[in-house]
């Protein structure tokens, strides 16, 4: 969460609406005499923001309210679109997306090009799971390790205004929380002067629903903001798994079937408070605190049928699991920024402390249906108490300033991560007591010290570059307390990056980038204790794992169709060495061990294409005007090739598979009060470890009705086609495994939203455009709207206010 103070001159409230009115009237007159194609490339002089603003500023008392010929004010929606691109990232605006109402951040990320979040909360970017998820450029404990998947399905999308996709991160970014490419979630920023806020809520079947409230107050040199979120949601699942063990000596096949039904609707509560204070003209301090709590309650029924090598069941039994628990997350943030006299020269210091404590208390009861006289598994009821703790302390400092013809950015960082996994299993039947096969305590302490430097400058009018180097020192201490196994990992990583930009014309660029990254193993991947889930499935980590090395190259072409709609094509290649690969090995005829090893290489590449915010022109059918439809479309065709793993390790063969991911949607503004949006995606086949995941997709429908400029109704239909089922396949020399999971998340969310405080920014611009009778979806109107918004943002930027008692400031006044 972040906050910015804002101070707007008294005349701004008059100047901006009047300037917008002139923009609208000029555009309206132009629309009567010019074709739509001309509007896309030309704007009359009176519609240019700066001259209009100057002309209106001379009229002291003029406002839009004083123009009686404007008529009533109406509002329209704007679909989410890419706001801007930078040399090393793409930025996508999500705060105005109608599908955001009541949605989780995982739901909304499925609208971002080449990003996919499956129903389990697993995040993939261009098919890769080694993705770092940051909030405002920094890591947080709730998005670490096994906590991340649940958090992605719980964190409300209302808290964020944009998403930065960073496929080739530069030197300023660390390698925590997964390494590889980065998804950076940017929190909503509260910059409007005075008091502003929003309250919203949704309801859905099965007791599901959300409630959201935020508010901010900004005046002078200080601002404060707060938010409160409540979410009760979750998905039921049905899973069917068929496992076949192939005897390497005889070729005989043993079959095991597992059927499971899981129900879990949990509550998520989040509250936060933040503020900003301009201590003087050059120094600003910021701070925030947030806390959230997520439930872990669930019920699951399982049915195990072991056929061994026969056609009829040899072992047949049921289990019933009940889980209670929660995940508690805290985060404290403090920041300081000093602006030097030189233009653009700043020093920033950021200190963060975040923690996550995750508890789950599970009771498991067995019911035998058919058991053999000998060789039967031990069916003893038990209770399992699991507590995982993550603590992150992060201190960073960054300096940016002019250096010769370009800008130098340099900084340092120290990060300490402490993780603990405490698993206790107690038998409830028989003689009772502690189950030593599964009870264990594991600690991981990790310190990372990093320094970096990058330099960015224009070479000439068409070429510019940015290059950097990051050096990281990693120290890991592992302690498997139960087994008495201790280990240390120490290594230094040198990570270069390079970005080149060639400007083809005013709207088009070519970009070439290269970056090296590492992906460190997590706590669960390092814990060597063998954990017996049951007599058929056990798992363990590997303390000898080391970081995966990633090398990434990308060439992209970016342009704007008609000067307005962003479009891009990117080709990319990535190579991962010492890949952390899941290994599945049978310990005996029935027990399958899943562990991890650094095995082989993985190569991937593809072509990514994107068209954002394109508006189809209005048409007339049988004499009636049809409203314009705005749409976006993007896709990613890629391939993955990796070394094949056999029973004894690498086989020397390769596995490869092409994959096509498509995303698209449109927004139909039926009239200024009603908007209908539809969005869908399809994720192609993906290789993973020793197997692959089959394609799946989802379609979402959203409708918004505005009662007035403050109150609106939203309806969101999730997973219309009931097509988000997950199908995983594993094929090795000794194992064939087929797992099908049906996710029940097709439902409708209905909600209301009310906004209070001043109406500024996008709403003011759109209202004035509509009042002037201008088609707000025409290319010329959208270009004028963009320019007007830029002028308004420039006047509403945070301005440090001099203190009345400061002598130096009085003298300046």
From TrEMBL:
It is found in: Cell outer membrane. Its main location: membrane. Residues 53-72, 775-813 are annotated as: Disordered. Residues 1-31 form the signal peptide. Residues 90-180 form the TonB-dependent receptor plug domain. Residues 338-754 form the Outer membrane protein beta-barrel domain. InterPro entries: Beta-barrel_TonB_sf (IPR036942), OMP_b-brl_3 (IPR041700), Plug_dom (IPR012910), Plug_dom_sf (IPR037066), TonB-dep_rcpt-like (IPR039426). It is a multi-pass membrane protein. Residues 783-793 have a biased composition (Basic and acidic residues). PANTHER family: PLUG DOMAIN-CONTAINING PROTEIN, TONB-DEPENDENT RECEPTOR-LIKE BETA-BARREL DOMAIN-CONTAINING PROTEIN. Belongs to the TonB-dependent receptor family. This is TonB-dependent receptor. It comes from Massilia norwichensis.
């Amino acid at each position: 969460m972040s906050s910015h103070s804002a101070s707007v001159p008294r005349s701004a409230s008059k100047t901006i609406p009047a300037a917008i009115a002139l923009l609208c009237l000029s555009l309206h007159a132009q629309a009567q005499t010019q074709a739509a194609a001309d509007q896309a490339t030309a704007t009359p002089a009176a519609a240019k923001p700066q001259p209009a603003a100057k002309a209106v500023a001379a009229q002291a008392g003029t406002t839009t309210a004083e123009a009686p010929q404007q008529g009533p004010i109406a509002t329209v929606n704007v679909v989410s679109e890419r706001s801007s691109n930078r040399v090393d990232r793409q930025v996508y605006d999500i705060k105005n997306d109608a599908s955001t109402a009541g949605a989780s951040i995982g739901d909304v990320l499925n609208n971002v090009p080449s990003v996919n979040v499956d129903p389990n909360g697993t995040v993939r970017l261009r098919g890769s799971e080694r993705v770092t998820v940051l909030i405002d450029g920094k890591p947080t404990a709730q998005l670490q390790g096994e906590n991340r998947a649940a958090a992605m399905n719980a964190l409300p999308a209302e808290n964020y205004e944009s998403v930065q996709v960073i496929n080739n991160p530069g030197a300023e970014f660390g390698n925590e929380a997964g390494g590889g490419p980065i998804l950076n979630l940017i929190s909503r920023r509260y910059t409007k002067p005075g008091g502003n806020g929003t309250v919203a809520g949704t309801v859905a079947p099965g007791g599901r629903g959300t409630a959201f409230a935020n508010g901010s107050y900004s005046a002078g040199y200080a601002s404060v903001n707060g938010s409160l979120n409540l979410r009760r949601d979750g998905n039921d699942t049905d899973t069917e798994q068929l496992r076949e063990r192939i005897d390497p000596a005889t070729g005989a096949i043993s079959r095991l079937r597992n059927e499971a039904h899981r129900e879990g609707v949990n509550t998520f509560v989040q509250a936060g408070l933040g503020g900003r204070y301009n201590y003087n003209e050059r120094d600003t301090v910021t701070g925030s605190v947030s806390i959230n709590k997520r439930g872990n309650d669930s019920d699951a029924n399982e049915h195990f049928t072991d056929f061994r090598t026969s056609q009829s069941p040899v072992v047949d039994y049921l289990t019933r699991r009940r889980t209670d628990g929660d995940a508690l997350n805290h985060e404290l943030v403090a920041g300081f920024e000093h602006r030097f006299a030189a233009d653009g020269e700043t020093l920033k210091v950021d200190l963060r402390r975040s923690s996550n404590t995750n508890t789950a208390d599970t009771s498991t009861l067995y019911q035998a249906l058919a058991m053999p006289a000998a060789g039967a598994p031990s069916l003893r009821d038990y209770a399992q108490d699991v507590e995982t703790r993550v603590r992150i302390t992060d201190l960073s400092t960054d300096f940016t300033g002019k250096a010769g013809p370009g800008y130098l950015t340099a900084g340092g960082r120290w990060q300490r991560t402490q993780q603990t996994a405490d698993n206790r299993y107690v038998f409830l039947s028989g003689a009772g007591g502690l189950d030593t096969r599964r009870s264990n305590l594991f600690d991981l302490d990790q310190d990372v010290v990093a320094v970096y430097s990058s330099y960015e400058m224009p070479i000439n009018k068409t070429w510019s570059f940015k290059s950097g180097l990051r050096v990281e020192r990693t120290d890991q201490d592992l302690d498997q307390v139960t087994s008495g196994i201790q280990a240390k990992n120490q290594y230094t990583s040198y990570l270069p990056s390079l970005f080149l930009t060639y400007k083809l014309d005013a709207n088009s660029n070519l970009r070439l980038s290269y970056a090296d990254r590492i992906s460190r193993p997590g706590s669960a991947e390092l814990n060597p204790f063998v954990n017996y889930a049951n007599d058929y499935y056990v798992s363990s980590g590997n303390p000898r794992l080391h970081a995966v090395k990633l090398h990434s190259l990308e060439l992209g072409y970016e342009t704007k169709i008609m000067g307005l709609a962003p479009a891009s094509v990117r080709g990319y290649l990535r190579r991962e060495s010492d890949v952390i690969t899941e290994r599945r090995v049978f310990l005996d005829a029935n027990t399958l061990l899943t562990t991890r090893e650094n095995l082989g290489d993985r190569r991937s590449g593809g072509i990514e294409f994107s068209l954002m915010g394109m508006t189809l022109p209005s048409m007339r059918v049988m004499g009636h005007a049809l409203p314009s439809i705005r749409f976006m479309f993007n896709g990613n065709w890629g391939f993955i090739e990796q070394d094949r793993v056999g029973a004894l390790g690498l086989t020397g063969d390769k596995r490869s598979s092409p994959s096509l991911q498509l995303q698209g949607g449109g927004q139909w503004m039926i009239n200024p009060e009603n908007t209908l949006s539809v969005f869908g995606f399809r994720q192609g086949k993906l290789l993973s470890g020793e197997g692959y995941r089959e394609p799946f997709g989802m379609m979402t429908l959203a409708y918004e009705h505005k009662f007035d400029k403050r109150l609106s109704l939203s309806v969101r239909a999730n997973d219309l086609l009931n097509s988000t089922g997950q199908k995983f396949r594993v094929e090795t020399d000794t194992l064939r495994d087929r797992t099908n999971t049906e996710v029940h998340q097709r439902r409708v969310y209905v909600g209301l939203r009310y906004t209070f405080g001043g109406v500024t920014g996008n709403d003011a611009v759109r209202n004035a455009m509509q009042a002037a009778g201008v088609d707000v979806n025409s290319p010329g109107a959208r270009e004028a709207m963009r320019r007007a918004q830029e002028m308004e943002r420039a006047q509403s930027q945070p301005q440090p206010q001099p203190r009345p008692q400061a002598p130096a400031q009085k003298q300046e006044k």
